[in-house]
Design a protein that fits this description.
With 871 residues, the protein is of the alpha/beta class. Among the domains are: 3-215, Aldehyde Dehydrogenase, Chain A, domain 1; 221-421, Aldehyde Dehydrogenase, Chain A, domain 2 (3-Layer(aba) Sandwich); 457-641, Rossmann fold, CATH 3.40.50. It has 31 helices and 25 strands. The strands form 6 sheets. Strands 10-13-14-9-8-15-16 form a 7-stranded parallel beta sheet, sandwiched between helices. Strands 18-25-22-21-19-20 form a 6-stranded parallel beta sheet, sandwiched between helices. A 5-stranded parallel beta sheet has the order 5-4-3-6-7, sandwiched between helices. 55% of the residues are buried. Mean pLDDT is 88; it is low at 1-8 and 446-455.
Length: 871
Amino acid sequence: MHRSLVIRAETDINHLIGRAKKAQQKYARFPQTKVDKIFKNAALSANVARIPLAKMAVDETKIGLLEDKVIKNHFASEYIYNKYKNEKTCGIVEYHSDCGITKIAEPVGVIAGIVPTTNPTSTAIFKTLLSLKTRNAIIISPHPRAAQCTIEAARIVYEAAVKAGAPEGIISWINEPDMATTMSLMQHKDISLILATGGPAMVRSAMSSAHPAIGVGAGNTPVVVDDTADIKTAVSSIILSKTFDNGVICASEQTIIVLSRVYDEFKEEMIKRGAYFLKEGDETNIVRRTIIKDGRLNADIVGKSVVELADIFEIDVPKDTRLFVGEITTYGKDEYLSYEKLCPVLAIMKVDSFDEATKIATELIEFGGPGHTSVLYTSPQNSANIEHFQNSLKTVRILINTPASQGAIGDLYNFHLDPSLTLGCGTWGSTSVSANVAPKHLLNYKTISERRENMLWFRVPPKVYFKQGCLEVALKEFSKKKRAFIVTDKPLYDMGVSKRVTDILDEMNVQNITFYHVLPDPTIATIQNGLKEIESFKPDLIIAIGGGSPMDAAKVMWLLYEHPEMEFEGIAIRFMDIRKRVYDVPEKSNKSELVCIPTTSGTGSEVTPFSVVTDDKTGVKYPLADYALTPSMAIIDSQLVMNMPRKLTAYGGIDALTHALESYVSICATDFTKGMSKEAIDLLFKYLPRAYANGDSDPVARENVHHGATLAGMAFANAFLGICHSMAHKIGAAYHIPHGLANALLISHVIVYNATDAPFKQAIFSQYQYPQAKQRYEDIAVQLAYPNGIVGDKIKYLVEEIEILKRSVDIPKSISEVLGEEMKEEYMKRIDEIAEQAFDDQCTGANPRYPLIKDMAEILRKAWYGGPYDE
């Protein structure tokens, strides 16, 4: 290497490290409260940038899948923050009075963070956030082929940290990375610790740098499937993991070892779910020759999609192929298919006994992935096999019945394994940490991290009154209240509907005022205006009466009244899991109670923890969600909907039906919600046409539709919704299409899209053991009188029944009918933009088939023309 290059690298590194040392020495004196504020602000900023950073990573590296990189960025910010937000990392971190033990944490100093090309932005977010939490400085060394996106991720975290009070220079990076500069960084005398993620050569260099280093080892994860395993769950989990980000996660499965007794069943299930088995001979040999070259993994195949790999391999495959599988009979040095393959290619072996399978798995680990990860699929009751496997395999992570990629990084399919994007392999893999890297590994302290359990839930208002005439009885529960604030809209106020409430309050001697300025799409400005009046009036009871808009507005007013310190922007932040969100929403402070009284039958807002608010400056609709928004009481009095306009009846009814359909197939659906979903579907199909046709002359129909809407609301309050609502939110905002109508125009297309046993992607933490949406839709078809014993397309029947119902209430067939053909060109130009916005909508995560952005664009395109089965 030319001497001048070495001198330049050392000079640049000296400057970076000198600046970082000064910043870290100052930061080391920060108290926990200031550190936590910096940590939080940095996590929030990284979370907001998850999609742009994912785009940059894919564009620059040409590796992986955009949507999965979004998930990894989200995980690196949200999950890491939530796991460690309450962990003490400054001064006294633990004290046991019973035994007199005090534990004190101190930062290590300046960290060298090596970032790979496979996960450039998520790893940068992860390492910088951990450094901030532990009061360390970090200097990021990007991979040369991912420099710009890595630097941008580090810059976003850094600027947010400095804005929150961190010293300048606490995070820095090498602008023009190369091997000489990276080596100078790792070997510098003032580096305290190296945090290395990358290829084997880079990790070996870190380990031989004469500094403490935390590195990751190569992954060559073997998977054993014994003859007691749930084959559908095993196959679904393996494909979910191996196709995630086109297989670049080092923990992803590489060789599947299946007992002969279940091999044929396993293979058949793999093919059914989209696996392409390579033909023996030419196809298998060309894949062997391509994936490994000169004894090393061919960089040209890393992170490539099945389509790209098919072109590289020159193999024609069905268009719905999700991964390649090659059958092998040997393994090790001479069988390239048994090497680590960072792409959607798997090897599979058939063996006769569990002992043989375990022996092969052990040898595969020793050959290509010492210490990393191994997986066993077996019956949970098969303790003998589990014990034999865990005692035999020398891997830090031994996963049982778990997708390797998602299971290894922690906190998705297990809740005692620390969430991390740097996976230590212990001394077996020549690394210093036998765990998922966490803050404790970047601190000089003696402690163990707290663990966290997860759970399912069902939450609705504590009281729900229903049946005609229940309004007065319900409100009299609040006879001891002093002041009531009524939230409604101008039409209901002018028609005297809200007066029904105020008359009862007057009779109870409850002082009251009415705010009637809520618009059809409640805005931030409206909420702020209402909140000013609330703060002045100081009510102990807030009553929302109207459709979804007054109730949505009242919920946010109520929450901000209860907690003036809350920020609307924080409530609006997108989350993956409502219990793990970056922005903490506190429980209500009991200043007041919220009562919701619907005068339409559709939104279900009276029983949900959701609200939709529009930014009046940008026109963007924000679906808000938190259980702190759940009303104290809902009053479902059908007398209030008897004179509802026909169009509102239609749109609200189909909106409620969409709630029921989406919550029934949601990944969060449970036994508690599915019954409500099905009952709502039954009521709406039976009574909506009558309510629409007969109006107030058919009070039975009106009441049943009203009850059906609330039942659907309770279901989706806990099971959540899906991409029909995601897209409806966005086209509604873009083209001022009423929300119920927008759902009606999309729902049939969404059902057809979701109704598959082999989705390209599944949601990360589904309640499904394997894809079940198609079967659930078929259950609904049977509920709607699909003939028993008849073989046929139940999905088509269900969609046709929905289309018949829509026609009976005069719903247009297509978006083109609503917007007009003259809008076609403009609509088609905006589809990709709308699809991207819909992908990031809060409702998307619960959809049973996790969508690609291009899939959502295609649904929007098809919906322009009409129903999915139109000629």
